[in-house]
Amino acid sequence: MHCSSKLQQLYNPLRWTQPPPLSSRSSLLSLSTHTFLHPSSNSPLTLHSSTSLKLHAMAKQSLPTKDYNFASSADLQFDSPLKIVEYPDPRLRAKNKPIDKFDDDLKKLVDEMFDVMYKTDGIGLSAPQVGINVQLMVFNPVGERGEGEEIVLVNPSVSKYSLKKALFNEGCLSFPGLYADVQRPDSVKIDARDIKGSRFTVTLSELPARVFQHEFDHLQGILFFERMTDEALDTIREGLQELEMKYEKSTGLPSPEKIKTRIRRKSGVGFGKS
Ligand SMILES: [Zn+2]
Q1: pLDDT tens digits, residue range 127-150?
Q2: Alpha helices of the chain — where are they, by DSSP H?
Q3: Would residue 55 count as lying in a domain?
Q4: For the chain, N or C: smaller number of CB within 10 Å?
């Protein structure tokens, strides 16, 4: 299959014994981060035992579970060309719905996501970063059209993280010009669907694992600065405040979040399974 053959190549250990031939520092650093799924937030509304059967039946009727959980066609609508959503836009924090329709609309969105990713020198991009709140990411660790492998992951989940961790100077297309060190597990085992809806499992290491984890965080509404130590975060604090001011000026709205009021923590690392 198209996508799985790509993944097999990506998975070939020989392919990643050397750092990938990235063409520029910016493409190396422009990883876009992704978020973790909070399984509880995906749970359908639960009615407790005291509720009568009748009420329960009514609730079922008024909450069509399929539409409630999965992305609708409207959720996948977009204006072309796609634009990168920058921090602190609330769409970076919104819940991202899983996808259950593997049709031409999805393919069109994926094509446009690759377009904008290459145009902006990125090597990975998640759907919420273009304002589409669905469980979808694309990446190509080489960051050049026609080179490397284009990977599409739909509804991804992580089944295993390596104990070995690595530090990497990350950037994010939603935080233009800001780079700082982020520690993450060196490899991850992933379950996902491809663009045709087929399930697959793959283990990624080194740069592809890094890109995946950044994008996966975006899908859970988690942003890369939340993975940083306070020391690393301090190096981009001013830049984050500038983005907040830029948002306020361009929208006329107060920034939905402020780094200044964020509680400091000891470490940006200790995260586990989703
Ligand atoms: Zn990002």
Answers
A1: 999 999 999 999 998 888 889 889
A2: 2-11, 25-29, 39-42, 53-62, 65-69, 104-119, 206-219, 230-234, 237-251
A3: no
A4: N
